[in-house]
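Q: We require from you a single protein entry containing the residue sequence and its fold in token form, and nothing else.
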Amino acid sequence: MYWYVMGKYTARLKMHIKQHVLLYVTSALALLCIGIVGMYFFFSSQRVSLPPPPPDAPYRQANLPDEERIEDLLSRMTLEEKVGQMALVEKNSILTQDDIARYGIGALLSGGGAKPPRNTPEGWYEMVVGFIGASRQSRLGIPLLYGVDAIHGHSNLPGATVFPHLIGLGATGDALLVEEVARATAREVAATGVNWSYSPTLDLPRDIRWGRVYEAFSDDPKLVAQLGSAYVRGTQHASRFATETPLFVLSTPKHYIGVGGMAWGSSSNKNFHIDQGMTPPDERMLRDVYLPPFAEVVRAGAGSIMVGLNSWGDTKLSAEKYLVTDVLKGELGFTGFTVSDWYGVYEIPGGDYHAGVIAINAGIDMVMLPFDYKVFIKNITRAVRKGEISEARIDEAVRRILRAKFALGLFDSGTEPLQAGLIGSGAHRALAREAVAASLVLLKNENRTLPLSLQDTHIRIAGSAADNVGRQSGAWTVEWQGIEGNTLPGGTSILEGIRERAPSATRVEYAADGIFSSPESADIGIAIVGERPYAEGWGDTEELTLSTEDREVIARLKEVSDTVVVIIISGRPLIITDDISSWDAVVAAWLPGSEGAGVADVLFGDKEFRGKLPLPWPARIEQLPIATDGTTQDGTVPLFPRYFGL
């Protein structure tokens, strides 16, 4: 019995030992596998420590052709260094300045309102030059691009010249003037060290409920092509070959493609209605309407093009290989680089890794992240090593980015000194004043109310936009959503312009609310009213009439003035059908910027009204959207057709 029991116990003991040994061996093998996989990914994510190239490396030789230099540099780059060049990061997201060289970051940007601690020319210069200097400390010394939204001047910087928004420039119809405005803007941008401008906008707004109408020249593709290409030339050839100011800024026509044709209520952003929405995938519209302006700026030599946040049907534009690679790069022959818009790649469903793979394979060369650059570099490097993105595709993207950097001369020139004298210079302000005057559209002029007569010895001025340089400048001015009040150094309100220009014998009174102390009737009442600043989808709205406050001001002014002129400050046409019959004269002044005196120049007849509506002015909301040929949604006639102007 004893031996029987001991035998059973021994057998069980052996069985337990075998089970434990098997468990331990299995666990050890599992841990070993995990360790091997972990070590693989750890080491595969580390940058290979390579020595810097020799000082006489071909890519450092300014006398060699750019393409030869590009290929030499590309051949020396590790995969991680290539992917780093494809990252565009918002400057406030850089954790430490050393990361710029460590990760080989290709570009930084100031998002709307992102500025240095000292928002002065000196503060901008020190910030940008500091970032560029940090990029030169990388193994290969590749300088970075620094971008801003200079869509109507270097407008993040107080004291810079703020030009009319593009809708106003569209009203001028003057390509030579637009080119000069772009050139002046580029000079002020480059004077602070910035080398990349996200402009011009080639969108074609069909629906004025959209909050970005003012960023576009027109809804006419022919006019947009003409003015857009002029803007590119002015930006990219801003005294590049002039010995006195060798400045050159990379232009970025946007937003490729179909932006402005989105359907109301289709936005992918729950806070918006139409911005970032769906553009119907109509091949005829693509060929006849949306593509011609981009074809023209490609011919003009645009160095980069920004891909929009909208969708083409159900597909986000950053995922549209047919449109980005086949059409833009293939058919149009675009040799610059494509860049996505703010967080645009990650609007592609499926998570950050999947979205990055889809977008880069679709043809996006540089990704406006704009935040987590470390994860982006890790994900794209991993995707290449897994074969989900070919290294040839990475090489193509980086080759395009380097082409722009060599064209800018970034590898060959030292840091230009700060040229603060260009910021808000007298010549630039005079040009802006000329642009304001040329942009004004006279919509109504009963009994030849305008220009103002020298016999008008008493003028009353009222309205929320009369003495408000911030409001007349609109959004993308110091802050993303704009500012209110007279806080722009050097700017002139419309009220100030009228006071300066009025004959000395003329009595000029002002009351913002239209309440004047004296009941006597003035010869002329001028109401300057309109929209508060707004940017992007935050301006999407169906409330397109003048505010109750503005209407009350006009009514009060009518009671104490023989004749009333209404000047509308807005980023788009407003619905004024029920009001215009009671006004003697009406002027669309758009968003004129910092030089309000340009309005006075035309009111007093020093310059003629010559602006024309760059898009139809609807009579009612039900007419929206309006087709390119002017056909309204409900078949009725707009209040004023495109190109109307007395």
Observations:
- The two ends are 121 Å apart (CA to CA).
- The chain has two domains: 71-421, 440-623.
- The longest helix spans residues 2-45.
- The chain has a mean pLDDT of 92.
